[in-house]
UniProtKB/TrEMBL annotation:
NCBIfam families linked to this entry: PRK05862.1 (NF004517)
Substrates-to-products reaction catalysed: a 4-saturated-(3S)-3-hydroxyacyl-CoA = a (3E)-enoyl-CoA + H2O; a (3S)-3-hydroxyacyl-CoA = a (2E)-enoyl-CoA + H2O
Major enzyme class: lyase
Organism, scientific name: Ciceribacter ferrooxidans
Protein name: enoyl-CoA hydratase
Cited InterPro entries: ClpP/crotonase-like_dom_sf, Enoyl-CoA_hyd/isom_CS, Enoyl-CoA_hydra/iso, Enoyl-CoA_hydra_C
Lyase keyword on record: yes
GO molecular function terms noted in the UniProt entry: 3-hydroxyacyl-CoA dehydratase activity
GO terms for biological process, alphabetical: fatty acid beta-oxidation
Family: Belongs to the enoyl-CoA hydratase/isomerase family.
Length: 257
């Protein structure tokens, strides 16, 4: 499958998706959205893909929604067409997805990185929600996911001032899971994805689902939800294999069923 705005490569059980609009610093237009949704829908159905790495270029993960595309939009068109709502399918992807971020992750770019399960950043990465400088506000989670990730003080600072934060500040604030040197970014993200994709797929998907529920449920309901999923994993062959491998002091060979 070839795309206009994405490069897609599958290595073993890991799919690597590279945003590829270098002329616009990977600005996210409707083609990127449609193509990413299509690629992810394919990975969702493909049991040979266990995890995804989403990345951009050295200079930009993505410098935001495409300003030139949305410039002339009016309220009625945006509202009736439910502009950008298709990105929810990216956030709803059920398999693990790691963002490997180098350079600018601004506006929709920062929001796209936050739709992934965790972010590995190059030391050159810069995160921000500069929408306020354009007379708008974040539209795809910047005021919500960012606030949950970094807390009110930093989220307010970024959304109100439009300033960027570097990788070190992003890691300190809890937005980023790991920071690595630029030349190691992709290698580190792929290694993490390879490791995750080798675990039991039902356990991996349930771990993701359970962590995500922490943002929606009360603690008591979340704990109950987690426990029910935990119970259900005892119905899998992989649980038997994982625990047998531990007691037999060998590496588990998960069948992903
Ligand atoms: N949209 C369209 N084109 C862009 C964008 C963008 N967001 N960002 C950069 N480009 C283009 C530039 O116009 C330029 O094109 P051209 O050469 O044809 O003029 C090319 O990319 C290179 O950019 P610069 O020359 O500006 O590169 P610099 O290195 O000088 O500056 C910056 C890099 C600082 C990143 C600068 O390009 C910039 O400020 N970009 C805009 C950042 C921004 O405001 N982003 C927020 C956009 S609004 C948004 O994201 C709303 C989110 C809503 C939900 C989206 C769902 C995913």
């Amino acid at each position: 499958m070839t795309y206009e705005t994405l490069l897609v490569e599958v290595r073993g059980r890991v799919a690597i998706v590279t945003l590829n609009r270098p002329q616009a610093l990977n600005a996210l237009n409707s083609t990127v959205m449609e193509e990413l949704r299509e690629a992810l829908a394919g990975f969702q159905k493909n049991s040979d893909v266990g995890a995804v790495v989403l990345t951009g270029s050295e200079k930009a993960f993505a410098a935001g929604a495409d300003i030139k595309e949305m410039q002339s939009l009016d309220f009625v068109d945006a509202y009736l067409g439910d502009f950008i709502s298709g990105w929810e399918d990216v956030a709803g992807f059920r398999k693990p997805m790691i963002a490997a971020v180098s350079g600018f992750a601004l506006g929709g770019g920062c929001e796209l990185a936050m739709m992934c399960d965790f972010i590995i950043a190059s030391s050159t990465a810069k995160f921000g929600q500069p929408e306020i400088t354009l007379g708008v506000i974040p539209g795809m989670g910047g005021s919500q996911r960012l606030t949950r990730a970094v807390g009110k003080a930093k989220a307010m600072d970024l959304c109100l001032s439009g300033r960027m934060m570097d990788a070190a500040e992003a890691e300190r604030s809890g937005l980023v899971a790991r920071v690595v040197e630029p030349e190691r970014l992709l290698e580190e993200a792929i290694a993490a994805a390879v490791k995750i994709a080798a675990f039991s797929a039902p356990a991996v998907l349930m771990a993701k689902e359970s962590v995500n529920r922490a943002f929606e449920l009360t603690l008591a309901e979340g704990l109950r939800f987690e426990r029910r999923l935990f119970h259900s994993l005892f119905a899998t062959e992989d649980q038997k294999e994982g625990m047998a491998a531990f007691t037999e002091k060998r590496k588990a060979a998960f069948r992903n069923r």
